[in-house]
Design goal:
By secondary structure, this protein is an alpha/beta fold. Helix content is about 35%, strand content about 15%. The radius of gyration is 22 Å and the shape is globular.
Length: about 400
């Protein structure tokens, strides 16, 4: 079966009726190029690690362009389509010709999926019927809170009652996965419990909770920290405990990012499967594995279970794929093996990284590891436990093979 993504374009903070108060893209500055896996060896910076990471796209595409691109993509596909996903830099609910777009895609009679929406652009409750009638089967919807006043204040939703009415209709006719950035003192505690109750009563399939980020270490790498001065942020452990507690009290699936999915046991669910751990290759050579502070203890435990004698090295950055050169500059090269494996999607330039980590006079080989070792809540929400375990088996098998191939 094949899938098709329809890119409608759009800009964060512009084509979404303005930034939400907590948006990760608020205050973004045009910083230097980071470097990444797509950069040429002799140049730091490419479209992905400059414009792409900042979501610096042009405005929404016109409907004719989208129609032409969709037709071309359909003609290039082989086999039956099982899903069409509407996506873009802007919010689909704010697309000026949204009704025409949905009716156009609905005419294909292929199930529709909206990859993300805040619902802020939907001012008419009847939009829910439009979507269901045209084959919407799945939607990711940022709710923040079921309290219209909180949506209005913190999301700048001009018509929160209408947006929530659309969400309610979608819950009754499609698979809806709601999402909420949790801001302590604002939409947590009793407010969050009421939101969970509201969603469950209306038939939502799940709720993804996202810990609010307010510092560079938490992932704000675009020189835009803090998003809100003085705003409290939960610790990773406190956030995980909150997710665990809520998941135990509601029937719908509740998970969190950066931690965790209580139903599946991910990220790194394989730690609870001794038989699968034993199927991973044995670690036979030495290499330093660098990763984020959240994943480091899990990866270290898995590698040690397969014979690794070199500790996994965490940087201060919590999320591995958001590691930049600033994080690596804080490491002592003398503590590193001659082979260093970095996260596959880290925002660093390969050649510059090798130079930086060899600055003590010891030549080191830097290797990019697998792109994915596990599935976070945003990925695992619609997956089975076996599907997550399959990702982890593939990822760690590849990582260990790299250690054995390039390690000393």
């Amino acid at each position: 079966m094949a899938q098709l993504t329809v890119d409608i374009g759009g800009r964060a903070g512009v084509d979404c009726r303005g930034f939400c108060e907590y948006c990760y893209f608020k205050h973004v500055k045009s910083t230097r190029a980071f470097g990444c896996r797509y950069c040429l060896p002799f140049k730091v910076g490419c479209d992905y690690c400059t414009r792409g990471v900042r979501e610096e796209y042009s405005g929404f595409k016109d409907l004719r362009t989208i129609a032409d691109e969709t037709l071309a993509a359909l003609n290039a596909k082989t086999g039956d389509l099982d899903r069409i996903t509407i996506s873009g830099g802007g919010d689909p609910s704010c697309y000026p010709q949204f009704t025409d777009l949905v009716e156009l895609l609905g005419s294909t009679e292929v199930p529709l999926h909206i990859g993300y929406t805040s619902g802020k652009g939907w001012d008419d409750p009847k939009t829910g019927d439009l979507l269901i009638d045209n084959g919407l089967s799945e939607c990711s919807f940022t709710v923040f809170a079921s309290d219209p006043a909180l949506r209005k204040k913190w999301m700048h939703d001009p018509t929160p009652e209408a947006s929530l009415a659309v969400l309610e209709r979608l819950c009754s006719g499609a698979d809806v996965y709601a999402a909420a950035v949790v801001m302590p003192g604002i939409n947590d505690g009793k407010v969050l419990e009421e939101t969970c109750t509201w969603l469950e009563e209306r038939g939502a399939k799940g709720l993804i909770l996202m810990r609010f980020a307010n510092t560079t270490e938490q992932g704000l790498i675009l020189e835009n920290a803090p998003i809100r001065k003085g705003q409290a942020v939960q610790t990773v452990d406190s956030f995980r405990d909150m997710v665990t507690d809520l998941a135990s009290r509601f029937k719908m699936k509740i998970s969190g990012t950066p931690l965790w999915d209580p139903e599946i046991g991910s990220p790194f669910a394989i730690l609870h499967e001794p038989a699968l751990l034993k199927k991973l290759p044995r670690v036979q050579h030495r290499a330093s594995v660098i990763t984020g502070s959240v994943a480091a203890p899990f990866i270290d435990e898995i590698l040690r279970s397969r014979g690794a004698r070199v500790p996994v090295i965490p940087v201060k950055k919590e999320i591995a794929c958001l590691i930049t050169m600033d994080d690596l500059e804080g490491l002592d090269p003398a503590s590193l093996e001659k082979t260093v494996i970095i996260p596959g999607r880290a925002f660093v330039h390969d050649v510059k990284t090798q130079e930086l980590l060899s600055r003590d006079g010891t030549a080191r080989e830097v290797i990019r590891g697998p792109d994915q070792l596990t599935a976070d809540a945003e990925t695992s929400m619609g997956m089975t436990r076996n599907e997550v375990l399959e990702i982890e088996m593939e990822g760690f098998s590849a990582l260990i093979q790299q250690i054995n191939l390039y390690g000393k």
